[in-house]
């Protein structure tokens, strides 16, 4: 599970940086590297999107587990 979390985190960061470049400078690194909407660029976009969903689910699960493990001191 730890490896999955690291992989999804890295892909989410890559996607966020790419969107930051698109917004700030109108530069899409995925298109520059793989071509405009080629099969490879579409795969990268899909992997980043799926990674974001998986990462959000894993973080939510971690948050819920942390809340249930804490005892109420009051």
TrEMBL record:
The chain crosses the membrane at residues 6-27, 39-58. InterPro entries: DUF378. The keyword Transmembrane applies. Keywords: Membrane, Transmembrane, Transmembrane helix. Pfam families: DUF378. The keyword Ion transport does not apply. This is DUF378 domain-containing protein. It comes from Candidatus Scatenecus faecavium.
């Amino acid at each position: 599970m730890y490896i999955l979390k690291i992989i999804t985190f890295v892909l989410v960061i890559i996607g966020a940086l790419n969107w930051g470049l698109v917004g700030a400078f109108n530069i899409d690194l995925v298109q520059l590297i793989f071509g405009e909407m080629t099969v490879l660029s579409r795969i990268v976009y899909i992997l980043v999107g799926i990674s974001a969903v998986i990462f959000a689910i894993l973080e939510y699960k971690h948050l819920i587990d942390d809340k249930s493990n804490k005892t109420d001191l009051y």
